[in-house]
Every structure is written in structure tokens, then in C-alpha cells.
Design brief:
Blueprint: H1 2-30, H2 32-36, H3 42-53, H4 57-70, H5 75-87, H6 91-104, H7 109-121, H8 125-137, H9 153-165, E1 198-202, E2 206-208, H10 216-236, E3 239-241, H11 244-253, H12 264-274, E4 278-287, E5 290-299, E6 305-313, H13 319-334
Parallel strand pairs: 1-3, 1-4, 2-4
Antiparallel strand pairs: 4-5, 5-6
Helix pairs in contact: 3-4, 4-5, 5-6, 5-7, 6-7, 7-8, 8-9, 8-12, 10-13
């Protein structure tokens, strides 16, 4: 009797353990990503890719949401999520995901390339060129491809360039010349005949800060300098300067934010769209207590720098004087 009872108890315990083990196995299979996320995003991402390839999109998205929540600086998860929206013709959703991810991973080759694809589909080739340029210049070692061989960067560049060539060119609208009494700095300027005046546009300046420096205020300063330099260039009476409103309109049409600083290669294309001979671009660099302004006048046809100069200022009170000095230097070099 005792042996039978012992055998029964042993069988019951073994059965209970077996059921528990099987339940744990099933649970582990149902929640593979959750259990493995602590070990890094790579394995859960592979599981998400497997679901995506089986067209199990809801399962893939659930895993991707968990990955991006725990590892927001893992570009492939964001990229696959955006790709899924893109393939379902949800361009707005795809762009929202990519733009958010790029704020966290601005140097990601994959995210910049996907942004270029989305903007190309939206017929915004100029902004697409900007993202393509960033993708080509990216050296992100942790980026990898998820497009299964469908991505051809050279082909995409050709398509974007073709779309840009079909964009409507606008007729430039120039600022009205100001006839105020000449200031001292204007006496240093050359006399230029009307038929020799270059048609130019002044774009917002970029900002480069030292590590740890808060650049929000200086980003706004780049737009202030753009406005000041536009006014100074008009006052030289040596250029035909495009109205800022026309420049902003073109930029917004191409999906750039108001006053957004762009790379020189893209700025040249902006100049092409608005029909000018040259554009002025530049960079603000924080150097301790001083800020350096580097300005360049760039030929639209060749992309070559016509003239370049730099000035420094250490307070906002000195900014106008610094901009006027920059204006004189660029103008003198442009008409040597």
C-alpha cells in the first residue's frame, strides 16, 4: 500500500512538472522578443524580420515597438517599421517615423536613405537630395541593409536628379534697392554696372558648436544673420538679391522647415530653382567666448566658390558690424 501511494505521488509530481515545463515552453515561444530584449536588439530584430517576410505585420510591429522603446538608437528597427508603412502606401506615417528616428540617429545611412526614398515619392526631390547626400556621407558602422537587395543608391540618385530637373523654375523676385545715406562701410565697395550685377540669394547659416554647447539660440542666430546679410547685400548696390519670402516659399514647397540650414550642394540646387547666378551660404562656429562667421559666395553653374571670408564677434551688439564687414569682404572678392 505504501509503495502504491509513493508511486502515485511520484507520478503526480512528474506530471505536474511536465505540464509546467510545456507551458513555459509555449509561453517562451509566444514572447521570444520580450525575453531576449535584455540581451540586445539584434535577435528580437531578426524575429521581427522573419514575421515581416511571412507578412505577419502586426506581430513584426509589436516587436519593433518594443525594440525602439528599449533601444531608440538602433536604426534598423525604425527603418523596418517605416518600410512597412511605406509599402502600405502610408507615406505620411513612414515619414513621421523616419523623421523621429533621425532626430535620435542623425548619421544613420539607412534612415537617411529611406527618408530620401519617401521624399522622392512625395515629389520633393530637393529635400530627397539633401537626405541622399547625408546617406552617402554617413560612416555609421552599425548600420546595415534591410531592403533585401532592392536598394540601388546610384539608381535612386539618378531618379531624384531626373525628378529635380523637371521641377518648375521660378522667376526671381529681387529686393528693392535702398537709397539710404551711405554708411562708412559702404564707401569701401566697388562700383558695379547694372548689367554686371550678380543675381544672388542668401541662405540660412549652419551652426557648429563645441561639445556640450547648447546651440538652440545660435541656430536662431543663423537666421538673424541671413536676414542681416540679405539687407547688407541689398545696400551694397552691387547685387540683385532675391526676396527672402520667395526663398522661404521654395524651401517650404520642398519640405524644408522655415529657416532650416542646408548643405552647400543642396543650396546650389535651391539657387537653380529660383534662377540666380550665385548663393551665399555659411557656418557659425562657437569658439569659446567668440563666434566666427564663415561666408561663401558659390557659383550655381559650376558649384565653385567665387569668394569667401570670415569675421568674429563676441556679443550681439557687435553682430551688425561683423555682418557688414563680411559683406564688404565678399563683395570686394566677387568683383576683383
Amino acid at each position: 500500500m505504501k509503495n502504491s501511494l509513493a508511486l502515485f505521488l511520484f507520478s503526480f509530481v512528474l506530471s505536474t512538472l511536465s505540464v509546467g515545463f510545456l507551458q513555459n515552453e509555449v509561453s517562451a515561444q509566444k514572447r521570444p522578443a520580450k525575453n531576449k530584449l535584455k540581451d540586445g536588439p539584434e535577435q528580437p530584430f531578426r524575429i521581427a524580420v522573419a514575421h515581416y517576410k511571412k507578412n505577419e505585420l502586426s506581430k513584426a510591429e509589436q516587436i519593433l515597438n518594443k525594440i525602439t522603446e528599449m533601444y531608440p538608437q538602433y536604426p534598423p528597427a525604425w527603418a523596418l517599421m517605416a518600410k512597412m508603412h511605406h509599402e502600405q502606401q502610408d507615406l505620411k506615417g513612414a515619414k513621421k517615423i523616419v523623421y523621429h528616428a533621425l532626430k535620435l540617429n542623425p548619421h544613420s545611412r539607412l534612415l537617411n536613405f529611406l527618408a530620401a526614398k519617401i521624399l522622392y515619392k512625395e515629389n520633393k526631390p530637393l529635400k530627397a537630395m539633401e537626405f541622399m547626400s547625408r546617406a552617402n556621407n554617413s560612416s555609421d558602422p552599425d548600420d546595415h541593409e534591410i531592403d533585401d537587395g532592392e536598394t540601388n543608391i546610384e539608381e535612386m540618385q539618378k531618379q531624384i536628379a531626373s525628378a529635380f530637373s523637371q521641377q518648375t523654375r521660378s522667376k526671381p523676385q529681387f529686393c528693392t534697392s535702398q537709397t539710404n545715406e551711405s554708411a562708412d562701410w559702404q564707401t569701401q565697395l566697388p562700383a558695379v554696372h547694372n548689367d554686371k550685377k550678380l543675381k544672388i540669394a542668401v541662405l540660412p547659416f549652419q551652426f557648429k558648436a563645441m561639445a556640450g554647447w547648447q546651440d538652440t539660440a545660435f541656430t536662431q542666430t543663423g537666421n538673424v544673420i541671413c536676414d542681416m546679410l540679405t539687407t547688407s547685400m541689398v545696400q551694397t548696390n552691387c547685387f540683385l538679391v532675391v526676396e527672402r519670402q520667395q526663398l522661404d516659399r521654395v524651401m517650404i514647397e520642398q519640405d524644408f522647415e522655415m529657416g532650416e540650414a542646408i548643405e552647400q550642394s543642396t543650396a546650389v540646387k535651391v539657387g537653380e530653382l529660383i534662377g540666380v547666378d550665385a548663393i551665399i551660404v555659411g557656418v557659425l562656429t562657437q569658439l569659446g567666448s567668440q563666434t566666427e562667421i564663415d561666408g561663401r559666395l558659390v557659383n550655381i553653374q559650376s558649384g565653385q566658390i567665387i569668394s569667401a571670408s570670415n569675421v568674429n564677434y563676441s556679443s550681439l551688439e557687435q553682430l551688425r558690424t561683423a555682418v557688414n564687414s563680411l559683406t564688404v569682404s565678399i563683395t570686394q572678392s566677387a568683383y576683383k
